[in-house]
Write a structure and sequence with these properties.
Blueprint (H helix, E strand, L loop, with lengths): L1 H90 E14 L9 E13 L5 E8 L10 E9 L10 E11 L24 E14 L9 E8 L14 E11 L2 E9 L10 E3 L12 E14 L16 E14 L3 E13 L4 E12 L5 E3 L2 E3 L1 E12 L4 E13 L10 E9 L1
Antiparallel strand pairs: 1-2, 1-19, 2-3, 3-4, 4-5, 5-6, 6-7, 6-10, 7-8, 8-9, 9-11, 11-12, 12-13, 13-14, 14-17, 15-16, 17-18, 18-19
Length: 435
């Protein structure tokens, strides 16, 4: 009986435990489910919040990218502009010269009371768009005043523009526009800065005109000689800037050579063509007009030049005032003819030299003349004469490679039928610079 009662008690206890466990299990699941639902809701809220933040972040990122793109474009544009400016400046070359000082002449000269002047001031710009062509513009601002014409040079220069000549014995360059023709040799130094003395020669043959010029060299090394230089030009001939007044054109030809290294020789010829009643661009001692006003005429000039360097240096031929040769002597002689209803002719020339006392100090001198044939007179160097002679002495101190202090004195003598010698001697003391 006790055994049966014990089994019934055990069975009752077992059933009670199962019931209690189930009740507690069901309660635990409900609590867990409640907790899970709460966590899910929080998770959904976080997801929603993250999605909103992501949208905002994308918009901000997009704006940031747009701003970065704009900054890059601005930076590239600025950089491109700087590069273009840098390229333009790299292609631009500027050079010039100036002479400033005190000048005192006789009563018939340009400075009878003595005067401080800036008689030579030039600024030249050269723009090189490529390896062949250079556009050159030069402004004349003598005495700090706009001259007429203000722009005395304006031309395009093209070097070695024919590829077929590259490996040949020939070289060729060209100039088109308004430029100085290379007649004679004094023409390259006929100014206060580059001349060995402050003054020019008494004749000073020079021509600036609108035209076309070809210049080149022929190599002669196969026969043991230095190259032969050739210059040919065609220009308007009549004075003034603008359209030509006649159909006839001026011609200039020149040959130059170094037969031996210390010796340089050249020969030049110029013919103005028919000028009608116009003045000539070729100036001789300042004379550009015909012998008689309104007369149809033409001017022809030839000149031979020679230069010898003693103790020849390494610097270029011109300007000789900056030469490092021990001494240089030059000789020039030419003749001219103004032909029309009346004829005027004559001869001209000079001999000059420079001696480098030291690297800094030099002494220089020149004798020059222009002589009209017969009893004809003209206004030679602002003085009426049949013959004009000039004796020039001077010296200088090379302050630096580009600055020279100069001192010079000119004794001028003019003569002719019924002409009295004018008092036009000149003292010059100046600072000359080039850059």
């Amino acid at each position: 009986m006790w055994n049966r009662f014990f089994k019934l008690a055990v069975l009752a206890l077992f059933l009670f435990n199962i019931t209690v466990v189930n009740v507690f299990a069901e309660g635990s699941k409900e609590e867990e489910l409640t907790v899970l639902k709460s966590q899910v809701q929080e998770l959904l809220k976080r997801i929603e919040k993250l999605e909103v933040e992501q949208v905002v972040s994308k918009e901000e990122s997009k704006k940031a990218k747009e701003e970065v793109t704009k900054l890059k474009e601005t930076s590239q544009a600025t950089q491109a502009a700087r590069v273009d400016l840098a390229n333009s400046l790299a292609k631009l070359k500027i050079k010039g010269r100036a002479a400033l000082g005190f000048f005192d002449s006789g009563k018939a000269g340009s400075y009878p009371a003595g005067s401080f002047e800036m008689p030579d001031a030039k600024i030249q710009f050269g723009f090189q768009p490529d390896d062949i062509n250079t556009l050159v513009l030069r402004f004349n601002v003598n005495n700090a005043t706009a001259q007429s014409p203000l722009m005395d040079y304006f031309f395009l220069q093209s070097k070695d523009f024919i590829p077929a000549l590259k490996d040949s014995p020939f070289s060729l360059s060209a100039r088109l526009g308004r430029f100085k023709l290379g007649f004679g040799e004094e023409t390259w130094t006929d100014n206060l800065v580059e001349g060995i003395v402050p003054s020019n020669s008494a004749a000073r043959a020079t021509v600036v005109d609108e035209g076309l010029e070809f210049a080149g060299k022929v190599k002669l090394d196969k026969i043991g000689l230095e190259p032969l230089g050739v210059v040919v030009s065609v220009s308007d001939g009549n004075s003034g800037v603008g359209s030509d007044s006649t159909a006839s054109k001026a011609f200039m030809g020149k040959l130059y050579h170094n037969p031996i290294k210390p010796l340089y020789v050249s020969g030049s010829y110029y013919n103005s063509g028919e000028l009608d009643s116009s003045s000539s661009e070729m100036s001789l001692a300042g004379v550009t007009s015909a012998i008689q006003s309104g007369m149809a005429w033409r001017r022809s000039v030839w000149e031979l030049d020679a230069r010898y360097d003693f103790g020849k240096g390494k610097k270029p031929l011109e300007p000789i005032v900056f030469s490092d040769s021990k001494a240089i002597v030059r000789l020039s002689y030419g003749e001219f003819k103004d032909d029309g209803n009346r004829t005027r002719s004559g001869n001209l020339g000079f001999v000059d030299g420079i001696y480098n006392l030291t690297k800094k100090f030099y002494a220089a001198g020149r004798y020059s003349f222009i002589d009209l044939n017969g009893d004809v007179t003209a206004t030679l160097n602002s003085v009426t004469a049949n013959r004009y002679d000039r004796f020039s002495l001077g010296g200088g101190y090379r302050w630096s490679d580009n600055v020279v202090l100069k001192l010079g004195y000119d004794w001028n003598k003019n003569s002719g039928p019924g002409v009295n010698d004018a008092d036009d001697n000149l003292l010059s003391a100046l600072v000359a610079t080039q850059f």
